[in-house]
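Quick one, tokens below. Sequence please?
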């Protein structure tokens, strides 16, 4: 896992914890933006992860095609 992915996950987890604390103190309306930002970071992490896996799969396919031609 790259450092960017680690940072995204850690930041999302921190926002969820802060949002939970803010929910207890001020209510859900005050913490809603934090939860939404955490969800956006999680989706961004999943998008990056899927993109890396897809590119690795494509490289593996192209490598196996080259071996089959020889």
């Amino acid at each position: 896992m790259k450092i960017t992915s680690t940072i995204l996950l850690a930041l999302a987890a921190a926002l969820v914890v802060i949002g939970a604390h803010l929910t207890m103190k001020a209510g859900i309306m005050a913490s809603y933006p934090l939860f939404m930002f955490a969800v956006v970071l999680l989706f961004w992490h999943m998008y990056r992860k899927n993109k890396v896996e897809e590119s690795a799969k494509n490289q593996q396919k192209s490598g196996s095609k080259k071996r089959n031609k020889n």
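The helical segments are 3-26, 28-69. The mean pLDDT is 91.
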